[in-house]
Amino acid sequence: MAISKPARTFQDLLVWQKAHRFVLSVYTLTAAFPKHETYGLCLQMRRAALSIPANIAEGFRRRGKADKARFMNMAEGSIEECRYYLILAKDLAYADTQGLAASLEEVSRLLSAYASAILSSGS
Predict the structure, then answer these.
(1) Is the pTM of this model over 0.90?
(2) Can you give the pLDDT at residue 1?
(3) Burial readout 10-29 (b: 16 or more C-beta within 10 A, e: otherwise)
(4) Among 106, 49, 40, 41, CA closest to 77
(5) In whole angstroms, what is the distance from residue 30 CA to residue 108 CA?
(6) What is the gyration radius of the CA atoms in the chain, in angstroms?
(7) Residue 6's pLDDT is what?
(8) How many CB atoms lie within 10 A of CB 119?
(9) What does the DSSP 8-state code read for residue 61?
(10) How many whole angstroms separate alpha carbon 67 and alpha carbon 24?
(11) Which of 39 and 122 is assigned the larger pLDDT?
(12) Residue 2 · residue 22 · CB < 8 Å
């Protein structure tokens, strides 16, 4: 079993990497939405998706467990918001969101594990 090195930057975190890929996929997906959704669902979905890796990045440098955990919790809230937007996009027949939903679920699992590790750490 390989021993992983501690992350030196937020970009070293697997959860951030997966969340970033999710954002890129959301941008691709929403680019094909109807034009009348440019300032509606498209914008909201992109904003919520962006918030996930942004909060992971911001929380990475915070000092203290509570502060770090607060940013991870905000990212978790954005994950739930994205879950809803994926359901809505599917129900409006704008896109097949199954693949993105699976990607988001992976990010959710990784973030939950990361947040738990932060809270159970010694510092």
Answers:
(1) yes
(2) 45
(3) beebebbbbbbebbeebeeb
(4) 49
(5) 21
(6) 15
(7) 76
(8) 12
(9) T
(10) 27
(11) 39
(12) no
